[in-house]
Structures are given as C-alpha cells and as structure tokens.
Design a protein that fits this description.
heterodimer, A: alpha+beta, 4-stranded antiparallel beta sheet, 3 helices, 28% helix, B: mainly alpha, Ferritin, two-stranded antiparallel sheet, 12 helices, 2 strands
Chain lengths: 119, 306
C-alpha cells in the first residue's frame, strides 16, 4: 500500500488537504473522493504519491460530491435553525417556561461593545 | 555534533514560536508518542461514535431523518479514516490500531460507552455531544502538528453541519408534545454527567504534556466553561434544565460553577468498564472481521487461496 497526498483546487491554488493509503491510483482517487469531497468541496481534486511531483487530477470534476440529490448533507438544508430556536424561545417565554437565571452576556453584545473581542 | 537534548530544545523553541510540525520533521520521542496516543484515541472515538447513532438509523421517525442520520454516521466513519491516516505517519499501522481498539488495549471517548435509549438520546448526541466535541476540536485547529490541523479543518466543517442537524432534532422535540419535551429532558438528565466527564477532570495545565508540546492548546476546564456558555443558555431558552443544582453563572467572577461529578465512574468507563463497552467493541470487531477480505485484496493476498 502506498501513501498518496490529497490535494484540492479552489480557483488556481492547489492545497494539500490530507492523505490516503491505497494500492493504486484508481483506488486512491476513490478514497480521496469519499473521505474529502463528498460535498463538492473545491473546484477539483488530485492525488500524488508521497515524494512525487506528478499530480493526478480527477478526470471529471463535475461528479464531486455526487450527482444525486443529497440536500441532507448540506448546511443550507438546516438553514433557519437559529431563527427556529428564537421563535420557540419566544413562545416558551410567553408560556413562562424559559429558565431565567444569570448567564454570560450574549456573544453578539460582547462583540458590539468590544468586550471579549480577541486581540 | 548536536545532542538529543539540544535538538529537543530547538524543537520546543519552534513550537513556542508557533511553528507547525510536519510528518517528516524530526521530533522528540515524547512528542511523537503523545501526538500518536492522542490522535489514535480521537480516531477510535470517531469510529466508535458511529455505533450509538447507527443503532437508530432503522428506527428514525422519517425518511429525511433517516437520510441525515445516515449521512452523519458516514461522516463520523470518514473522520476516523482521516485521523487513522494522520496517526499512521507517527509510526503505528492502522491494522495495529484497530487490533488494539477491538481488544480493549486503547481507549475511546467516555460518551460512546453509554446506551442510546431513545430518539431523545439521538438529539442529545447530535447537538450537545457534538457541540462538546466541536468546542474541543476547534481548539485543535491551533495544534502544533500540521497534518492534524489539516484533518481538523475538514472535520470541524462537517461537525458544524452535524450541530445544525442535532439542534434541529432538539427543537422538534422541545416544541412538540409534552411527551416529546419530556423525552429530550430525560435524555439530557441521563447524558449530563457523561458530557461533564467528556472534557476530562480539571487538570493542572503546567503538568499537561499535551499542552507542553502544543498538541492541545487549551485546558479541560477552559473548554468546559466555553461549552457551558454556549449551550446552557440555549437549553434554558427552551425550558430544558440540566440536572446539576450547582450549575450557575457567577457574574462577579465571569465563570460557571458546577458540581464536580463522580470521577470514579469516568475512570471506570474509559478503562473499558462502561455499560456498553463490551457490546460496542464486539460489534466493532465483527465489522472489522467481516471486512477482512477487502484489506486482504488490497494487500494483494488472495483470501484463503488454495
């Protein structure tokens, strides 16, 4: 088994994002896709044997992340969770079910006032 | 000629200066062993973490929930693969790591030694346990070992999605019927202590070898406090009360107080005496054995060719 570096390209820049161990190029490509590109990350990807300069780019990048509908894998399929939380909080407040105890200042407030801002 | 101690001192100076270490770089034995043990345990935990949720895939209440839970479990298995690859470069084969795991010679996170009894547990695992994991994993983005940092970038991106998935599950339960609300509160009651254990006992930062080498960059207590600040107000907002009467935010000190849980249980569990330890390891070993032919094919050895 050989070690292959996995590279991702966004626009013009190739970046090493990890590695896989595979007996040949075909399986290395397959492992790279399954471990690093299930969600269509980047524009395309490639592998190269450790110690080699030769990049093997995936022949058909349009298939990265799968071609069937996989909305459950995507962040935007859970869009609105924050809003839902606020809505339920508001309903519970009206019902008197919220647990009202001292808590740290809200992060957004702290940011707005500069308190807790990272140097 | 440079001595081992001098090289170690130079290495430590690189870390203190914020430099990252690559797999091919020289490193002291203590660094290599500490990083390997830590990353191997992380990889083990990702793989073992699949099992409690996997048990609920057939019983998910809708197709959408089934698909998203399946995708999440696949992500966790993928994290295991990525992390074993990182750990392998530190000098231990993947086969040996799996062998040590299924035979109880190495550890995995305490939370994966417990049963997932109800769909409420799936929500707790998806939101609060993944939330606790994300707090610790984000801190690892500053780790001194570069291949681990690259792995954590990928893992944190996926864990952020899991968190949404878990919060969505939670909100569905707390805003549903009283029975659904109670299901989630009950799950929080049972999981709170394991979550407190998850961050580890309060440690002395100056004695922590992982902090010394920059493999970890923040103390157990610091991470637990961040977890409280992020998640306890959100739980209170929706009427859920963690089962710790001492849990309170001290405004004057700017930190949370909490009841120190029973650490004997923690040590028992991580040493392999948790309620589900043997069942889960047995399951893991069955999967490992079942897929032996794949590894043998890859190694070019015909399985039982006679």
């Amino acid at each position: 088994m050989r070690v292959w570096e996995v590279l991702q390209r966004r626009k013009d820049d190739w970046e090493v994002v990890g590695g896989v161990k595979a007996p040949d190029l075909e399986i290395a490509m397959h492992f790279a896709r399954e471990t690093h590109f299930r969600r269509g990350e980047g524009d395309t990807y490639a592998v190269r044997l450790t110690g080699s300069d030769e990049l093997h780019e995936v022949p058909e990048s349009s298939g990265i992340g799968g071609v069937i509908d996989r909305e459950f894998r995507r962040m935007d399929s859970f869009a609105g969770v924050g809003g839902k939380h606020r809505e339920i909080h508001e309903q519970m407040r009206k019902q008197g079910r919220v647990i009202d105890r001292p808590r740290p200042p809200d992060l957004r407030q702290r940011r707005a006032t500069g308190e807790g801002a990272r140097a | 000629m440079t001595t081992y101690d001098e090289r170690t001192a130079e290495f430590k100076a690189r870390i203190d200066a914020g430099e990252k270490i690559e797999a091919g770089d020289w490193m002291p034995d203590e660094y290599r062993q500490s990083a390997l043990k830590f990353i191997e345990m992380h990889a083990n935990s990702e793989v073992m973490g699949c099992l409690p949720e996997r048990e609920w895939i057939p019983r998910a209440p809708s197709l959408r929930r089934k698909l998203s839970l399946t995708a999440k479990v696949q992500d966790e298995a993928g994290h295991g693969q990525i992390l074993y690859r990182v750990a392998e470069d530190l000098g231990k084969s993947r086969e040996q790591m799996f062998d040590d795991l299924v035979n109880g010679r190495t550890k995995f996170h305490n939370v994966f030694h417990y049963p997932a009894e109800t769909w409420g547990d799936v929500a707790v695992i998806g939101w609060l346990i993944d939330g606790a994991a994300l707090v610790t994993q984000k801190a690892l983005l500053d780790c001194s070992y570069a291949p681990y940092v690259r792995a954590m970038k990928r893992i944190c991106a996926e864990e952020s999605l899991h968190l949404r998935h878990g919060e969505d599950l939670t909100l569905e339960l707390v805003s549903g019927t009283q029975e659904q609300f109670d299901l989630f509160q009950d799950a929080v009651n049972r999981w709170w202590k394991p979550i407190m254990h998850f961050f580890g006992p309060p440690s002395k930062p100056d004695k922590d070898v992982l902090l010394y080498w920059g493999i970890k960059t923040r103390s157990n207590e610091d991470l637990r406090q961040e977890f409280f600040s992020t998640y306890v107000p959100k739980l209170w907002d929706v009427g859920i009360d963690p089962p710790d009467p001492d849990l309170a935010y001290d405004e004057a000190r700017g930190e949370w107080t909490w009841a120190d849980p029973d650490w004997d249980e923690f040590w028992q569990v991580v040493r392999g005496n948790g309620p589900m330890t043997q069942t889960r390891l047995h399951r893991r070993k069955a999967i490992w054995d079942h897929h032996a032919w794949v590894r043998e094919t890859f190694e070019g050895i015909p399985a039982q060719a006679v």
